[in-house]
Write a structure and sequence with these properties.
The chain is built from two helices and ten strands, in the order E-H-H-E-E-E-E-E-E-E-E-E. With 137 residues, it is mainly β. The protein has a ten-stranded antiparallel beta sheet. The longest helix has 12 residues, at 27-38.
């Protein structure tokens, strides 16, 4: 897991506005949500088979710990709860399925790949794809 571990600063993210639209936020909260989505730092640690992510945004922080085959609860900035289930974690890649809070509906997938000092995260929710690129701090 050494490739994932560390602090990562987001340098680019595609399709932010389309993802914010999925959250169905009131107009007065959309600008802040877009700012949060475009300015993200992630601290990643690995211990005992679990990949822990601490997400830092201008207006919020979020934590999630991923274990293979186990559901982890994630609360979006809209307050919507989701489950994230890791299907693969290795030294340079990770994959997960994103589902509704009760697990009955698959929303999409999350895939991460590390190459050198670059981390790429691809999130696909309801057929909308967003790619985030991070550089190691």
């Amino acid at each position: 897991m050494a490739n994932f571990v560390g602090k990562w600063n987001q340098i680019e993210r595609t399709n932010v506005e389309a993802f914010i639209a999925l959250l169905e936020l009131p107009d007065d909260k959309k600008a802040k949500a877009i700012e949060n989505a475009k300015s993200l730092t992630v601290d990643i640690s690995y211990s005992g088979g679990a990949l822990s992510l601490h997400l830092v945004m201008p207006a919020a922080t979020r934590d999630i710990t991923l274990n293979i085959g186990k559901d982890a609860e994630y609360v979006a900035s809209s307050g919507k709860k989701m489950q994230v289930n890791a299907t693969e974690i290795n030294d340079s890649s990770a994959k997960a399925i994103v589902k509704s809070a009760d697990g009955s509906v698959n929303y999409g997938t999350l895939e991460g790949d590390v190459s050198g000092d670059t981390l790429k995260l691809k999130l696909v929710l309801f057929e909308i794809e967003s790619l985030s690129t991070f550089k190691k701090a």
